Task: structure prediction
Amino acid sequence: MSGIALISTPSQDYYFPAPSIFFLKGALEKHNISSTCFDLNHKFMSKFKEDGLLWCQTGKEFKPEFDEFILEYYNTHLKNFKNLCLSVFTYNSQNFTRRFLELIRPLTSAKIIIGGAGIESQSGVAKNFDNVFFDKEMLDKNLVDVVIKNEGDISLPNYFKNIPYNFNQLDDISDIAYSNFDDISFDDYVSKTVFINGSRGCVRRCTFCDIGHYWKKYRFRPGNKIAEELIYHYEKYGVTNFAFSDSLVNGNMKEFRLFCSILAKKNLPVEWEGQFIFRNGTTEKDWDNIQMSGCKRIWIGIESGSEKIRNDMDKKFTNKALYDSIENAGKRNIKMNFLLLVGYPTETLNEYEETLELLRKSKKYKNLIRVYVNPAMILPNTPMERMDWYDTMDNWKFINDEGEINFKERYRRWFETNKLAMDIGHKIKPDYNEQKTMLDMKLKELYG
Result:
């Protein structure tokens, strides 16, 4: 039998290589441990598209062809490996992973190892319920042998070196491994994109986000090290499109400025994008540097047009910073993805209206803006989970100054915000129709 198979599980974006398995290959290689990557997510989602997405994300509309695909893929690619390592990217990967393991476990004597952010989440539970997270479910059902947590680029190599492997977190990530894409051809993908990890954790502690639970401390790499990695992939693979996996690419402004200045001076034909926070104190010179470094798009967790609601969320940036930043990015032709969250527990109708007004005021740059709207949801291990809500996480309800806010009202605000964005001329999220199908199903389940 062969050695180690690193396997991506659906559903996640499949237009580019699934980042985690190629990063883990590089991490193992750093310890002289060989492995082979299998981008199962890309194969499955390319074949089944919307049907696969619906099943992966909801567990509904299962098709027998999914089982046929899994078994054929296993027999063709995986059956001769001694170690099957599955990357469970988010909770949206749980339905596929569960079914994959139910089918494969009886067929193999291989060690089955799972890891990823998706192993420590479970949806649909009632408040104060003793959550059974996905990793424990898989262990209890004897579907896996090993669970890898925390810093996978250290934990996984340690496991294969037979030394203690699960631990808290690294203090220094300056010299983390580079991803290794030698097992694939970028020509198989719609987008030839490489993901770069410049930091771990976040400088914010947003109430709806679980990053602070998993990464207690914000750590960052020197700006020159980040630039060197990007240049390495450009020279080795000819990749010109890069994206950051960071919670915030500009969490440390000193190193972010250094990164941008190095790329600006290199003047390479590369472009990058990443999650970005609008900050008080970002200067015109900063914005010029960002533009010259090759920044093509920033993803901004604006969440709300209301400064009061952003403060409730612990977002901590002002409306002045919001509108100044939109103007600075827009006049430099930098694309912006607005990430909006409607129906937050304390959001009144007047505060919600400020989000709609944000879209109207941003009309000037509608050709640069894409709007991603989500109804507010509660995740385990977040400050929002500890708020005084009731019912289940899927159907949480909260009494604010105007009365009860529930899923029906969150759906209404989600639909209205998307409609206004389209009416103004903003682009909206590419999978809006798929999201609407899933939210419509949930609305029908809850309200008939």
